[in-house]
Amino acid sequence: MTPVGYLETGVLYCDDNLHRLAQFPSECIDLIYLDPPFFSNRHYEVIWGDEAEVRSFEDRWEGGIQVYVNWMRERMIEMHRVLRPTGSIYLHCDWHASHYLKQMMDDIFGEPNFQNEIVWYYRGAGVSPRRWARRHDTILFYTKGKDWTFNPDPVREEYAETTKERFSHYIGNVRKGGDFGPQALNPKGKHPDDVWSIPIVAPSAKARLGYPTQKPEALLERIILASSKTNDIVLDPFAGCGTTQVVAQVHHRQWIGIDISPTAVGLMKRRMEKVGAQQVKLVGMPVSEQQLHDLKPFEFQNWVIQRFNGTHSQRKSGDMGIDGLSFMTHDPIQVKQSKSVGRNVVDNFETAVERNGKSKGYIVAFSFTRGAYEEAARAKTAKGIEIELVTVADLLKDVPDLVTPTPSLLAPELPLPKGRAAAELPTVDELIDSDRS
Ligand SMILES: C[S@@+](CC[C@H](N)C(=O)[O-])C[C@H]1O[C@@H](n2cnc3c(N)ncnc32)[C@H](O)[C@@H]1O
Description:
This protein is of the alpha/beta class. It has helices at residues 17-21, 65-82, 98-109, 161-166, 217-227, 243-250, 262-274, 289-294, 297-307, 343-355, 370-383, 392-396, 428-436, and strands at residues 11-14, 29-34, 42-48, 53-59, 83-93, 114-121, 136-143, 170-171, 174-175, 195-197, 233-236, 254-259, 281-283, 311-312, 324-325, 332-335, 360-365, 386-391.
């Protein structure tokens, strides 16, 4: 793919980063932080925060470590290309693969450009009686070349009391009485070292968005403050719930995020708006029925509920297939990632709506049979229960804010169209009206 010459910031891309990075111009990014899946053979499926969006991401590698490293290598080659000659990169990993990844980084960036192996130490639960408790991640810091930004001042630490006492008789670097001291204490604080003790985002913390690998803002703060300047461009190609972008925004850096999951991108947009980002642009969100059809079921369900500005219902047995609740009125929504949804689905949902004490509900699917429409009409006449049969095509209409298409490579120099401001987003009633018309 030919890289395009125009790079816009304040954008969240929903895409495989390999594909998306290939479209970035060379040498345009000042700082990259990446926190990829860790070769941990785990499968995460969690409920996100208050809104309980179902979220999962695969961290399983068939074919072993070499498959994983090759997968990382092709992405890392692109990251190296897009980094400015003065740029820095921080690769977050852990004991599963850090030794393989360091070799890979040496190959791509060159051994002399290795700067630090940072140990992020945290406390946590869970120990094995057979070995030391595993309590750290590894962050590999490389630069692209010989000159780079490194400003420790904003992240300096307090000296230990014993150090302060030991050096108390030094003023500047001159000992009282005339001798030069071996070293003076810096009034701004101690030069930070490569072991960082920062608490994880606890599952109960307010900041926790429900994602097990969410990284603390304090961790990203150290990296961004030391390794970038105001207005520099910071990229996170495995953006997750957007910690890097949030910290970059708060500290007046430009930012770009990429994540393959539409749910993550939708969540990041809301998180960014909460910290004051204006007109966050989303690129590459699903725009066609086929793309939506191909999404994983939980991604599709989250997409539908986001389109309604609704909330996700907590998973519990006996919920009778209610996947979410509409905005404000909390009417039940059922999501079917299928075509030709028939009479029996409407019939069952009608009972669910009734048992929830509601008189209205929505079923979303790609299409409905004639019997489904007849059943919905019967429910209205016989019981006064209104079941709206909403097609995916209806939800795709008139909602360009979340469905900004990928820019055409034929017009690479053109900036993307602006997304809609939050105030212009459709209300649920407008969305529903658009279904009726
Ligand atoms: C460990 S999480 C990142 C968490 C993030 N640092 C945070 O604090 O929220 C890894 C993320 O990478 C995304 N991901 C996995 N493969 C990807 C790919 N090929 N391109 C873009 N994103 C990908 C997953 O969807 C997941 O959100």
